[in-house]
Specification:
The chain is α/β, with parallel strands linked by helices. The protein is built from 7 helices and 5 strands, in the order E-H-E-H-H-E-H-H-E-E-H-H. It has a 5-stranded parallel sheet with strand order 2-3-4-1-5, sandwiched between helices.
């Protein structure tokens, strides 16, 4: 059969390296597409999902509603949907190392997320898939080893992308980009920018 796009991707790298900013930029770029090309984007902070667990089953319902809305939007528009799950390890962590109550809550959420990923595209007809409709999930974490291994199996998060700590040249390019947007009469020399980049190890 025809080659199908991945259901999901995992973006990972050290804290503060710019993963969430990169995801926000992707969402921002998609929002500026023309009406005929624009896709539905939903950024979800998984800490907010966890905080909704005062009522039993509420977090699972919230997560299910997010996926349901995204799939319906993808199907109706034929252009697809993107869900960004920031700090996905908070709702689908590796088993062990938590209290019984917390573990039970996270296990239920993890099971819901895995079922939702498995269900992507199952309600679509073959014709809707060929029209470009579909849902893709971009999950973000600082450390893939914190995740439930089941999340990284084929058919779920099919692609893994590492965002590594930038080297001197990359830091210099980042500084040049941001400094170019500053309204200043005094130009900063490339030598000064390179010197700053070497000092900016964080």
């Amino acid at each position: 059969g025809p080659l199908q796009p991945p259901k999901g991707a995992l973006l990972f790298g050290p804290a503060g390296v710019g993963k969430s900013l990169m995801a926000a930029q992707i969402a921002n770029d998609l929002s500026f597409m023309s009406c005929n090309e624009r896709i539905h984007v939903r950024i979800v902070n998984c800490a907010d999902i966890i905080s909704s667990t005062a009522i039993v089953g509420e977090a699972e319902k919230l997560l299910s509603d997010i996926f349901d809305k995204a799939e319906k939007s993808a199907t109706s528009s034929g252009r697809g949907s993107l869900i960004i799950l920031d700090d996905v390890h908070l709702i689908c962590s590796r088993r062990g190392g938590m209290g019984a109550a917390s573990r039970s809550t996270v296990d239920q959420l993890a099971g819901t997320l895995l079922a939702l990923l498995d269900g992507i595209g199952t309600s679509h007809t073959d014709s809707s898939k060929t029209c470009g409709g579909g849902l893709i999930v971009l999950a973000i974490t600082t450390d893939p080893s914190m995740l439930d291994p089941a999340l990284r199996r084929p058919g779920r998060l099919d692609v893994e992308i590492e965002v590594s700590v930038p080297d001197d040249k990359a830091r210099s390019d980042i500084l040049k980009f941001h400094l170019s947007h500053l309204m200043t009469e005094q130009r900063i020399s490339e030598m000064d920018i390179n010197a700053l980049a070497r000092l900016a190890k964080g």
